[in-house]
Amino acid sequence: MKATIALLPGDGIGPEIMAQARLLLQHIAALGGHRFEFESRPIGGAAVDALGQPLPGNTLAACRTADAVLLGAVGGPRWDRIESVMRPEQGLLELRRKLGLYANLRPVASHPALFAASPIKPDRLAGVDLVVVRELTGGLYFGRKFEGANRAEDVCSYRREEIERLVRRAADLTIRRRGKLTLVDKANVLATSRLWRRVTTELVAREYPGLEFETMLIDAAAMHLISRPAQFDVLVTENLFGDILTDEAAMLTGSMGMLPSASLGDDGAAVYEPIHGSAPDIAGQNRANPFGMLLSAAMMLRHSLGLEEEALLVERAVADCLSAGQCSADLGGTLGTDAAGAAVFQRLSRAAA
């Protein structure tokens, strides 16, 4: 396998965890006889500082020609006073839009070794294995906006085709898992949610009649995600609801540092990134948890490069590290970023020996 991978370290702890992802992929390449070529480009606040814009043209060009994109993190308080169109986060939003990345997959699985790190009772965490499929290029984040001194407006708008393409992604994933799909909406209040519910119900009945399908209001879903999370298999939802639910779901794993994500379109490179932020308070201190980044690289191996066996090797190595207590402080361990990454690499080498 030969592949070009665009690396976008970004801000805060982004460069530190990206360094671990690069080392991981070099280990995978050596073990499997693959050839990975890396192109590193700036994004977010680092790009604003260096080039005056959060998504420079050469960064976008590198992503468009790459086979896959790995992203660290963007943003931080030092850029909070910049005008909104130049904020670091706009670089990520624009990248998603330019690459047509409308489907965000965020898997959440509990691990017994991390039950104590979660604020949720252990008996509720047993057996948690779910995926949130979030619409990524529509809704309030991309709708018409107005901001004045005394009034502001954010328009939420969706079209049938935007909903259908995401639901098909979610339904196809559900077929390969446990067969239960949950649509999360606010159909008792929002017109857009009523469209989501109508379109999704029709599509599932027509194209996926074998699926177990349910609808759930966002407030109820937020409650059940904490009270009985093991009931969920695949949740599909719009942009804002998905953003909130996945951050909430991070508490099921004990740390946001554990959660990877994949942003997919129909063509071209997909973007893989941990869901945590840039954590500027610990940047440069070798304290960041690299596991979310490494698991994002595993998702890249699976979804973009078709290397399922290698992806499983990475995921098992991370799980084994957790079982052995080889993890960072946020998970109750004592390892720094570099040492946590090295523990994963050592287990990869042993598994392949």
Overview features:
Isopropylmalate Dehydrogenase, 12 helices, 2 domains, 353 residues, ten-stranded mixed β-sheet, 19% strand, alpha/beta
Describe this structure in words.
This protein is an alpha/beta fold. It folds into 2 domains: 1-102 and 269-353, Isopropylmalate Dehydrogenase (3-Layer(aba) Sandwich); 119-252, Isopropylmalate Dehydrogenase. The chain has helices at residues 14-32, 45-51, 57-65, 88-99, 122-125, 160-175, 191-207, 218-227, 239-249, 291-303, 308-323, 337-352, and strands at residues 2-10, 35-40, 68-73, 103-109, 129-135, 145-147, 152-154, 180-185, 212-217, 234-237, 260-264, 271-274. The two termini are 20 Å apart. The mean pLDDT is 95.
Number of DSSP-assigned strands:
12
Low-confidence stretches: none
Q: Helix/strand-derived class? A: alpha/beta
Q: Specify the CATH class of the largest domain.
A: Alpha Beta
Task: Please state the average pLDDT score.
Answer: 95
General form:
globular
Number of domains: 2
Distance between the termini: 20 Å
Fold-level CATH name of the largest domain: Isopropylmalate Dehydrogenase
* Cα Rg: 20 Å
* Widest beta sheet: strand line-up: 2-1-3-12-11-4-5-10-8-9
Described by strand count, sense and barrel closure, the largest sheet is: 10 strands, mixed
How large is the share of residues in beta strands?
15-25%
Number of helices: 12
CATH architecture descriptor text of the largest domain: 3-Layer(aba) Sandwich
Question: What is the CATH superfamily of the largest domain?
Answer: Isopropylmalate Dehydrogenase
